[in-house]
Fold this sequence. Notes:
Layout: E1 2-7, H1 10-26, E2 31-36, H2 38-43, E3 47-50, H3 59-64, H4 66-83, E4 87-91, H5 94-106, E5 111-114, H6 126-133, E6 136-139, H7 142-149, E7 156-157, H8 161-167, E8 177-178, E9 189-193, H9 198-212, E10 219-224, H10 231-239, E11 243-246, H11 249-255, E12 258-262, H12 265-272, E13 277-281, H13 285-294, H14 302-307, E14 313-316, H15 322-332, H16 335-352, H17 357-369
Amino acid sequence: xxxxxxxxxxxxxxxxSNLMKALVKHDPEASFRFWGGDRMQExxxxxxxxxxxxxxxxxxxxxKNIGLILKxxxxxxxDILQFAPDALILIDYPGxxxxxxxxxxxxxxxxxxxxxxxxxxxxxHRAKQIANWSQNLFVILPFEEQFYQERGxxxxxxxxxxxxxxxxxTPSDLHMQMEERHTGSEKPIVALLxxxxxxxxxxxxxIMLMAARDFPDYHFVIAGVSxxxxxxxxxxxxxxxxxxxxxxxxxxxxxxSFALVTSGTATLETALFGVPQIVCYKGGILNYLIAKQxxxxxxxxxxxxxxxxxxVEELVQHDLTVRQLRSSLEQLLKPQTQEKLREGYDxxxxxxxNQGTSERVAQEIISSLSPSS
Length: 373
């Protein structure tokens, strides 16, 4: 069968690649065409557009690039029709994929939505639309299934795909980049995960590194991504004695004693590796003010949202200062803080369910395409 997938960021690329592998396992004749990234391209060659060319963060950035986004949507629709897939698989990325889902449902295409947009956080009225536009809606957070059911809508909780990604991870050597003056390789590592988008990385690294100066007994290492220019990280390294690894976030977390993490999927990955963390986020003031008015959630980290309690400390916008981050890091280094976090991480794993998410989703999709379904 023919599958067309659309993922618009690094996490979607990861989950999309694992789903593609599972589809091939159960459908050896599977052929793909997709929007995604390097991981998906390792599975199949038919990459249409890389997510780095369409990833815009925040309301202001989206508005600035609306012309490019609309052009991309038009290009995508034409490409889908030409490919004529048996299934169109949309992976999160709501700003783009919800437009495609609405259009595709009118075209009579088989739409499979994997990783529901977080409509429980904002624009909850979209829940009915997503459910109606999709043959199957797969959710990865346990409370999402109930959210849809309470509205008389069908959604299937399939577990969280990060459980598989972490469980199948195989450690490899860190390819560390560092200044020649660096001498801290034997020190405990503090991982710095500043995000994967240019706008957020430049802001977050500045604050993280300024706070790090007061902790000379620790080796701070940046988790970089190859989809961003290397100069962003090199500029930071030139000002401070820190290390850098690129596209080795899991290898870094495997070795890290602590982590400073920009809000997002990385907060959950850090927890699944058992690394005590502080969650940080600061964006443009206009983006923040808009988000504050329309987003209705008590926490910004997935860890706290899933547990429904403030397990990990969150420093957001005005609370994220160099002084406060230093103070929070001092607390994180205390054994009692670390013990509390690890106990919470154990409860988190239980709530997230079993491994095998990609397998379950692949089987559900293939089953829905069979003549007897």
